[in-house]
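User: My notes are a mess, but here's the protein and flavin-adenine dinucleotide's SMILES. Can you give me a structure?
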Amino acid sequence: MTGERPGLPDTSDLRGSVLTPSDEGYEAARGIFNDRLAGHPAMIVRCADAADVRRALRWARAEGLEVSVRGGGHGLGGWASNDDGLVVDLTRMRRVLVDPGTRTAWIGGGARAGDVVSEAARHGLVPVTGVTPSVGMGGLATGAGEGYLTPLHGYASDNVLEFEVVTASGDTVQASATQRPDLYWALRGAGPNFGVVTAMRIRLHPLPEQVIGGSLTFTTADIPRATRNSWELMEHGSPFSFPQTMYARGGDGSPTVTVFPGHTGPSGVAAREIGALRAGTDPVDDTAATTYAGLLHQLDPDGDVEDEGGSRHLWDCFHLPFEGARGEQVDLVLSLLPSFGPNTMMELWPTRPAEIVGSESVIPRSRGVTLVVLGMWTDPADDAREIGIVERISDTLRSSGLVRESPSASNHVTVYTVNRVRDLYGADDFARLQRLKSLYDPDNVFRNCYNVPPGS
Ligand SMILES: Cc1cc2nc3c(=O)[nH]c(=O)nc-3n(C[C@H](O)[C@H](O)[C@H](O)COP(=O)(O)OP(=O)(O)OC[C@H]3O[C@@H](n4cnc5c(N)ncnc54)[C@H](O)[C@@H]3O)c2cc1C
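Assistant: No problem, the inputs look usable. Here's the predicted complex:
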């Protein structure tokens, strides 16, 4: 390759830009949501379009560089970053083009949930997203993606109608129900294994007429009852209900619980279901009417910041199936609280995806409670202590026999093992994915993800 700078490819036909460690802007560009997992890539290619993505992959191949694909940078495993490799950075590819007539939108591979929500809202429409605005639709809609609208409209992946993908061979291909249906099946749930999604056409829905956000904060004594109330609603509530239950430790060391009702249904249903969350308890009630965008920002007020970072995290996600013994599951959750440190949190939310007719995909569809154990701190010197706390809680969960080893959705895989991924998809779908992987990415270029290795 002939470059103006030694070690750099010829960038004259690139519409975006290349950043290497000596460039101004490199430090900010290498940042991802989780500082602990932000590596030092040799080259960050800030792509402007699909042709730039093809060039970046060509350079990686020519130089033998490991590839990471960065969408919104919120991946729990830190796969959008690497050390000494190349990052295909999609943060400049955030265009959103709404077609109100067909209630669809074409969105760029780097678009964030908040980008799509604000553009769709101008037309009275809404996409299925996660619960915060800054997560990338790239990672979300290729790995299931659940949030407030999932019980009503399915996963974010269920709502992708068409993908434009640059594959490992450098070809741009389309995948939909009628074009490469096998690839379409795999992209919705195992997407990052198969290429770089440069654009997607997604389905939009009418904006809910009423949205209730805010929170209910319970006393320590009310924690068991609040947990049981919330579990009942997660399992049997209307499809408008998506309560998130958040546990932490207060300043005096006692456990705290806050429930965010996240309700998108008619006022009568909302009043009844939020009433059910309060039953038999006396919480501080800060619930209030808001908009869908307001709901997304309540857990992530700075959600429009482009390059986040600054905090270190360890997440571990588990699935507690509804068919399990609820009493034992609730007792298990409550038994974990005394092990929390000041920086430990735990969150429960319902995994109850609507069945979408004609939406065959590799996403597992088991229903239950998603449980996330999370450590969040800032000082690298605290890594060992904070990681130890989360790992001990995770070990207790695993050895309980009440949770599944893998989470219910692929984008919730945080710590990769091939067994976890096989367990997540099930043996038959995993084998089908391996065969497709051999076809589309035989050299496993796209391995920085919840990887399905090629196989026959
Ligand atoms: C604060 C926070 C809140 C979250 N909330 C939710 C939630 O409400 N619901 C939910 O379901 N999940 C949630 N998640 C998990 C999140 O959906 C996943 O981590 C998701 O994969 C992040 O996508 P991203 O594009 O932001 O991340 P990235 O780190 O950029 O990407 C994640 C993975 O997807 C791949 N990828 C990203 N874009 C593309 C693309 N265009 N083409 C091909 N591969 C791509 C990457 O290579 C990587 O392997 C949350 C995570 C965080 C940190």
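The mean pLDDT is 93.
User: Great, I'll file this with my notes.
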